[in-house]
Write a structure and sequence with these properties.
This protein is of the alpha+beta class and 62 residues long. It has one domain: 2-Layer Sandwich (Ribosomal Protein L30, Chain: A). The protein is 29% helix and 27% strand. The chain contains 2 helices and 3 strands. It has a 3-stranded antiparallel sheet with strand order 2-1-3, with no helix packed on it. The protein is globular, with a radius of gyration of 11 Å.
Amino acid sequence: MADKTVTVKQTGSPIRREKKQRATLVGLGLNKMNRTRTLKDTPQVRGMINKISHLVSVVDEK
């Protein structure tokens, strides 16, 4: 059975955001507008997505 994944797309700019929010974006592998990353669907990744939900959107869940 394959691991579950989640595809995240950055929709907001990190300009004028707190350092923690920028660091969370970098931790997810995002740092420029409209970038997408496919990540393992773990509680840690979900928590990071929830912290910056105003900057990212979940494109696909598998």
